[in-house]
Amino acid sequence: MVSKTFLMVKPDGVQRQIIGDIISRFERKGLQLVGAKLMRVTTELAEEHYKEHKGKPFYENLIQFITSGPVFAMVWQGENVVDITRKLIGKTNPKDAEPGTIRGDYCLYVSKNIIHGSDSEESAVREISLFFNEDEILEYNKDI
Ligand code: CMP
C-alpha cells in the first residue's frame, strides 16, 4: 500500500553537504519526495519528536545535537515506504549498518548518524504532523 514517511537529514548530514546524495538514493529507488524544508529544530519540537527517549543516557546530547544546526526535513511517499527507507538508511548504530546503506557508507557514531527515519506507520503519521502543515505536502501530477 502506498503510504508516507518522515525522514530528516540531521545537522551532521547538512553540514557535510550530502543532502543531494541522500535524496538521490530514495529517488533512484522510485520513491516520491512530497514535502521538504531546510529548518532549525527548536528545543520544544526536539523534545516532542524524541519524547520516547526521554530519560535515556543519550537524551540530553540528542536534543542538543538535533537543535545545533539546520536539518533537512522531508516527507516521502511510496509502496511500503517506511520499511524501504529504513532498509536504505541502515541500522541505527553505524557500526552495524551494512555498506551500501546511508549510515553504512557515511558515518561512524550512533550520536551522529546522519539521518532519522520513522520506525512505523504510526510514528510516520505523528512525525509528519509535527514537522509539516498539511498544505506543505504536495501531490504529483499523474498526467505528466
Ligand atoms: P534516530 O533514528 O534519530 O532516533 C533516536 C536517536 O538517538 C538515534 O537515531 C541516534 O542518533 C541517537 N542516539 C544517540 N545515542 C544513542 C544510543 N546509545 N542508542 C540509540 N540511539 C542513540
Automatic annotation (TrEMBL):
GO molecular function, one term: nucleoside diphosphate kinase activity
Keyword set includes Lipid biosynthesis: no
SMART domains (UniProt xref): NDK
Catalysed reaction equations from the record: a ribonucleoside 5'-diphosphate + ATP = a ribonucleoside 5'-triphosphate + ADP; a 2'-deoxyribonucleoside 5'-diphosphate + ATP = a 2'-deoxyribonucleoside 5'-triphosphate + ADP
Gene3D superfamilies the record matches: Nucleoside diphosphate kinase-like domain
UniProt-listed NCBIfam families: PRK00668.1
Name under which the protein is recorded: Nucleoside diphosphate kinase
Taxonomic placement: Bacteria, Bacillati, Bacillota, Bacilli, Bacillales
Encoding gene, per UniProt annotation: ndk
